[in-house]
Amino acid sequence: MRVTIEEDKCCGAGQCVLAAPTVFDQREEDGIVILLDETPPDDKLAEVRQAIRLCPALAIKVEV
Amino acid sequence: MSVSHDAAAAGCPFHAGRVPDYPTRRSGCPLDPPPELRELRKTQPIARVKMWTGQEAWLVTRYEDVRALLADPRVSADNSRPGYPGANPGMAMVRAKYPSFITMDAPQHPYFRRMLTADFTVKRIEAMRPRIQSLVDERIDAILAKGPPADIVHELTLALPMIMICDLLGVPYEDQHYFHEKGMVIANGKTPPAVASAAIVELCDGYIGSLIDRKNADPGEDMFSRLVVTQLRPGHITKQQLIGIGRLLLVAGHETSANTMSLGLLALLEHPEQQKALVEDPSLLNGAIEEILRYVDAAHAGRRRTAIEDIEIGGVTIRAGEGIICHNPAADRDPEVFPDADRFDIRRDARGHVAFGFGVHQCLGQPLARAELQIAIGTLMRRIPTMRLAVPVSELDFKEDNFVYGIEHLPVAW
């Protein structure tokens, strides 16, 4: 899978970090999303999908 | 608590062919949204209602519609738009005079919000867990030392978020009752407008204004001092804007967590089999907290917006300029998303609830709220596992008219 983020949409709510902590983090200085792993292993797909569902800013996409 | 599923059928104003008044009141189970909303979600999920101002607005009760509208760029959160449906006189006045980013659109909204996002990242809040745990333990030590009965609101659920927000903002603990009381006066829909107006002057111009002056004279390590030094002094924000941010953090920062905690505890105590399950299996805790957030939905005034373009949704057209109330408590009881939605069930997957809202305005403080809820409720289950309600539910005083729903006191025994 390939994960993409739209950083300027991000509102720093932190939902993605809770849903998929090995794929997403937040910048220390402003809480904006950091994509830790653009191509996570397949077993992370459910977590990534959960992050997409929970992201209030609709800032995450995945291509499978 | 009994749940009356057919209360909506008889005499429901939504079926009477006129635009009904909003808000509707709760009846039956005090942890359920008003029963009319259940019927409405089925038959008119986007309905016209008449506000306290005489204006009409759209009331949205389905989960998917609430999420779609809150994430829609054609929807504005700006309370200065004429169609904006203010929640009550006090909230409308305070948000007009001291707006914060919660009622702003881009580019102002991200500009102000990003001044604060660093303080509420998941990692920053994780680092605060030991402090929250030791506070919770101290409060429970005191509860156990005094013996039953105890008012858990006074002893823990209000005290904890209050101390945490004072810590973060650098506000003296001894002021907590003052700003809590003033905040309640402003946020209560039954407060006469003149009284709310006077309380706004006292709290905002007076108290928060002089707090900013003190931080400016002698800055500390807290968030208020940082905003004064890095934003106010260089002229990035005005004092009035900082007062708006300060009021939001001070009041929203404790009211919502405190009330979710007390209502959530009540939900557990009223479902002893689930309380027992949580006591016996602490791995259920995080799921239980998400279910509490979904089930009690303390921010019961809903999310207020205005359409800035015509929007076709759910078979209706919301015209540009019309007000919208996205009713998060009704959305979180939508059976299409949460099966048997009116049942409190700590084992369900309640993530995805809209108790914190949705869209770019979703609650900034949610990691802190989660940490406080998880630690307080988890520690209570472990240290006072036999806790029970000390009075009948009918004797509890619920904050129906308040901007944030809650309970005044929650007497418990063990």
Question: How does this structure look, described?
Answer:
The complex is a heterodimer of chains A (64) and B (414). Chain A is built from two helices and four strands, in the order βαββαβ. Chain A is an alpha+beta fold. Chain A has a single domain, classed as Alpha-Beta Plaits. In chain A, the strands form two sheets. Chain A has a two-stranded antiparallel ribbon. Chain A is globular and about 30 Å long. The N and C termini of chain A lie close together (4 Å). With 414 residues, chain B is α+β, with helices and mostly antiparallel strands. Chain B has one domain (13-413): Cytochrome P450 (Cytochrome p450), CATH 1.10.630. Helix content of chain B is 47%, strand content 8%. Chain B has helices at 36-43, 63-70, 89-97, 108-113, 122-127, 129-146, 152-157, 159-169, 176-187, 193-217, 223-232, 239-269, 272-280, 285-296, 328-331, 366-383; strands at residues 46-50, 56-60, 75-76, 150-151, 303-307, 311-313, 316-318, 323-326, 388-389, 411-413. Chain B has a five-stranded mixed sheet with strand order 1-2-8-5-3. Chain B has a three-stranded antiparallel sheet with strand order 4-10-9. Chain B has a two-stranded antiparallel sheet with strand order 6-7. In chain B, strand 1 (46-50) and strand 2 form a beta hairpin. In chain B, helix 6 runs parallel beside helix 16 (366-383). Classes of the chains: A alpha+beta (64), B alpha+beta (414). Chain A binds chain B through residues 9, 11-15, 17-19, 25-26, 28-32, 50, 53-54, 56-58, and chain B through 70-71, 110, 113-114, 117-118, 120-123, 351-352, 356-364, 366-367.
Major beta sheet, strand line-up of chain A:
1-4
The average pLDDT value of chain A, as a whole number, equals 97
Strand residues, percent of chain B: 5-15%
Stated plainly, the CATH topology of chain B is called: Cytochrome p450
Compressed to H and E, one letter per element, the order of chain B equals: HEEHEHHHHEHHHHHHHHEEEEHHEE
Q: What is the name of the CATH superfamily of chain B? A: Cytochrome P450
User: What order do the helices and strands of chain A follow?
Assistant: EHEEHE
Neighbour order of strands in the largest sheet of chain B: 1-2-8-5-3
Cα end-to-end separation of chain B: 20 Å
Q: What structural class do you assign from the helix and strand content of chain A?
A: alpha+beta
Low-confidence stretches of chain A: none
Described by the principal axes of the CA atoms, the overall outline of chain B is globular
Q: How many E strands of chain B? A: 10
CATH top level of chain A is Alpha Beta
Mean pLDDT of chain B, as a whole number? 94
Q: Which class best fits the helix and strand makeup of chain B?
A: alpha+beta
What share of residues are in beta strands of chain A?
Answer: 15-25%
Sheet with the most strands, sense and barrel status of chain B:
5 strands, mixed
Give the oligomeric state. Answer: heterodimer
